[in-house]
Every structure is written in structure tokens, then in C-alpha cells.
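tool_call: predict_structure(chain=1)
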Amino acid sequence: MTLSGPSTARPRAVAGGAGDGPTDGPANPDFVRSLARGLDVIKAFGPENPQMTLSEVARATGLTRAAARRFLLTLADLGYVRSDGREFSLRPKVLELGYAYLAGLSLNDVAAPHVEDLVAQTRESSSVAVLDGEEIVYVVRVPTKRIMAASISVGTRFPAYATSMGRVLLAHLPEDQFEDYVKNVCLAAITKRTVTDPDRLRDLLRMVRAQGYAMTDQELEEGLRSAAVPLRDAKGSVVAALNISTHASRVTMEELRRNLLPQLLATARLIETDLAAREGPKQA
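tool_result:
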């Protein structure tokens, strides 16, 4: 299985006005349907479809051709979309939509140098991710020069339950959120090794919370093994997870635990120390 792209989410239909498309959006009277539709047009583009015709955009978003055309032309006027007359594609300006969040997250700047050092020491890939709903989102990524099938970059999203970083983050949710997640998540089998039983997942997450780290063996991709640990802020709250990933042909699970996990934990402590220093002294 090859994993790729900044998002694995499937395009979904959005709430529309008369003649625009589906009308099953949120009932909240403050919900701005046109904004939701415009964002869905942007999210319809991705690594597998970087360029799309008007008809393809309409089909991917559930909008009518007329509505899709209005949104695409508006986005083009704003500089977020370009067109060659037949096909549309995103322009670099769309990066500005996420930059305010990433730039304001001090974790990125603090963690990146330490992640780079870890990769240099271990010659394995390492990343930092945060939890967003039922998915993890990569906010720091330093790949090894070894070639692997997984194509991952900042912004990539994966189901939390099938990843080591996701399990670390899920394990440290407040108890009510923890239980809601386990009860409601759809546990699809991504590989033949993916844990899909809710009770088994609940037990694994409680074990992760107790031992302070998570390990996954080819649950997200065949041949991919990973270990992850939490990253805490100055108050002790888990704000992100740090991982190291390797190929099963090179590293056994025991070697991952014995040789790479200690370096991962040491790097996490360095990041947390710098995070605490950046946040300043605690108030009396």
C-alpha cells in the first residue's frame, strides 16, 4: 500500500443553497454555507488530482457545474487557483491559509532541529504530529534518504488509530473524549495487521498511557514499523507526538524498542526542555 498526499480524506458533499448541490449541512444558523463550499473546492485538489476540469471539481464536491464555476473563478481572482482555460489547479498562495497556524505553533520551530539531529543519529525518518479529530496531522517531518513507499510531508493526515503517534495522542485524551473516540471511530483494516477491534484498541491505548510510548508493526503500511512518544508543554499537557519510523526488513520490533526508543525518548526530553524555556518561567 502506497501512502501519499497532504490529506487522505475523501472529498465530501457540502451544504448548498438552492440549485447548488446537497443541502445536508449543519443546522447551525451561523454556519456559512458558501464558505464551506469554497473550502471544499480547495480541498478537492490533491496529489492524485492536482489538476481538474470544471466537471471533475463539481463531481468531487457535489456541487453543480454552475456553482463550482463560481467558486473556482472567485478563487482564481483571489490568487488561490490558476486555470489554463480547461483545467484548474491550486497556486502556492493556498499555503497562506495554513501558515498562520503553523507559524504560531512554537512547537514546529523548537522541534525541527532536534528531529533533524535524531534522523542524523539513527538514519531513520522522524516526525511530529498533532491530533485533529480522528486524524493526525504532520507538523514536522524529516525523512531519511532511504527510499520508502510512504510519501509524507507537513500537512499529511492519517487515521490516528493505525499510527504510533495517533495512539500516543489518543491515549492522553481526557477520559470522556477517549471513550467517545473508541466507541464511535470506524476501524477500517488498512493492512492485514491493522487493529480493528474496539476492545483491543482500548486496551492498547491504556497500555500506551501506562508505559509512555506506542509501537506499531505494519498497521499503516506493509513493511513500516514505528515508535512514538508524547511531547508535553510546560504544564505537562500532551500537545503533540514524536515518532521514528523504519522498515521491517532492517529493524525488528525488539530492536526498535531496545535501540531506537531510548534515542526517541531522549529527543523528546530535549524538545520539551526547549518548549518550557520558550514559554517562559511558571507564574507563582
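agent: Confidence is low (pLDDT under 50) at residues 1-19. Proceeding to next step.
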